[in-house]
Amino acid sequence: MKILVCWIGKYDLDAINSKEGQWDGPIAQAVGWGDFEQVVLLSSWDKAKSNQYVGWLKGRYLGRVLLRLQILSKPTAFGEIYQAVVAEVGALQEELGKNIELVFHLTGCTPAMSAVWIIAAKTRFPAQLIESSEQGVQSVSIPFDISADFIPDLMRRSDSKLEKMAEGRPDEAAQFKDILYRSNQMKRVVDHAKRIALRSIPVLIEGESGTGKELMARAIHHASPRRDKLFTPINCGAIPENLLESELFGHKKGSFTGAQSDHKGYFEQSDGGTIFLDEIGELPKSAQVKLLRVLQEKEVQRIGDSTPIKIDVRIISATNRSLIDEVKVGSFREDLFYRIAVAIVRLPALRDREGDMSMLVEHLLKKINEEVAREQPGFIQKTISATARNIILQHQWPGNVRELNNTLQRAVVWNDDSVIDEETIRNSILNLMTSNVPHDSVLDRSIDQGIQLQDILNEVGRHYIKRALDFAHGNKTKTASLLGLSNHQTLSGWMKRCGVD
């Protein structure tokens, strides 16, 4: 079965009033050229004009003519045009089978419509392309394979956007309003951070990987009196140890092999602003000593220079470890810890942010949709089904917001339909074992050599009692209520049994 599919254009409507012997317009010319069993007309014109044209065409063509009205915000809206084409041609294939012979008509419609016909014919619906004029109708041969040349370039641009988002880097001017939350846990943290932001004291941000430590650091900077100065993020674990001192504090020309000119370090460059030392626990002991001196003296000394340089820099540090534990085992200097931890912000894990998950899913999915749609014409916006959402709500998210974001990105890429279903979400979640999720290690312990069930139950009890006490600010009556216990005396009994001090 051979089917012609085309958009009704202005020249087609003008042909209705043409005089005898004048050109009948692009579509009528094409209809007379091919042995079509069916003609499908897509129209963004109003219903009256569209029906008038269909009636006129039927007077010249004895086959079946179908009209499909399409609502477009404008005749050059690539995404809307592509979605209309996919929906209508897909419906034809579903009704008549995928072996139908499709012919797409390029003439008379807008350039955007013609471009979408070419893309669709080369990538999704194998079809013959034709064009018509007063001289006749001819088949169109595209001089390059769009599916091999154009589409990969198009996808590469959108992929680069997704790759950048996967890094979890916040916007340069991120503020507290960019931190999304409903939970009481995050409300307390943000309120605390807002108070800290007004002062120039050093801040230590603690939290698991993916909890948004840099986002919080940027928000503190942009809410501070230093907001108009430089914010310099530094990944302490990414700089080779032999270059660390030069990168942080600078060097003089000729001070070592390769030092071909004077170099300002990050601290000197950020004078008056804020330095964000991410994963500060990765700093080697030698660098910790030098950083301590910078904090104490408020000056840096370039390698090879005997003259110190006064600086005014605020330090915000971050770690996914417990620096107190690092101090206890001797891998982090105690005196440096007390210098950088004048104020401490502890970001809760996503699994502990009750009520925040649904809000974050909606926000991240919207952001991913917007990023891909900007770079990929015809992209179908994704929503998420109720069952898929439930799976997300039940997952523990050891990678926190970054893991959630990357999971949704995978789901958007893998899902062909407009609704992300349960199977796609299950396949998108990386079920990695991690010690950060207490109940995973409890549930997955080997029983080959036997287990101590009471010890495990006490461990679980300690975990939830401590969390509830923290949430309730030590109020035992509220803690008992949170844990489903009858009163604070019963809670005291549980605390004693589980070894909670």
UniProtKB/TrEMBL annotation:
The keyword RNA-binding does not apply. The keyword Nucleotide-binding applies. One of its GO terms (biological process) is regulation of DNA-templated transcription. It holds the Pfam family Sigma54_activat. Residues 179-413 form the Sigma-54 factor interaction domain. Keywords: ATP-binding, DNA-binding, Nucleotide-binding, Transcription, Transcription regulation. One of its GO terms (molecular function) is DNA binding. This is Nif-specific regulatory protein. It comes from mine drainage metagenome. The lineage of its organism: unclassified sequences, metagenomes, ecological metagenomes.
